[in-house]
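Lecture 7 notes: from sequence to structure.

We start with a single chain of 146 residues. Read the sequence below before looking at the structure.
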Amino acid sequence: MTMNTLPPVAKSFFTFCKKCDADRYHVVLAHTSATSAKIKCEICGSQKTYSLPKAQTRTGKPLTGAAAKKREQTLNSRRSSHRNEYDMLMSNETAPTMPYNMKAKFEKNTKLQHPKFGMGFIKDAMSDKIEVVFEDEVRTLIHNRQ
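Now the structure, written as tokens:
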């Protein structure tokens, strides 16, 4: 059974029972529509209607007018300040460049080549985490895993 199809009639499947207050096997009695079915708990015998989970959608309204303009200005200022920091750090020619591997140990002020995020610069290094400035944002990565 996938998340978008109902189980067949007379088959059991695992779901939450309100009466038992636990996850239990329920048997499908009948399909009442394309997205719901009558089910019965195999332990307590309670019957209820089971509906397929709905896909999560954004319910928030998009910003318009002055609010949208203010948000865009904030995002642009963040991007430009981050971009300036990235450019300044990447201009350091003496910093060694290393490919990213979570098992390797990295030092502060090292250039890092990540397979997904691209070229970055290690701003801070802790015992098991590194803070890396990439072109699009600052990310915390794992390192020194044995």
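The mean pLDDT is 85. Keep this in mind for problem set 3.
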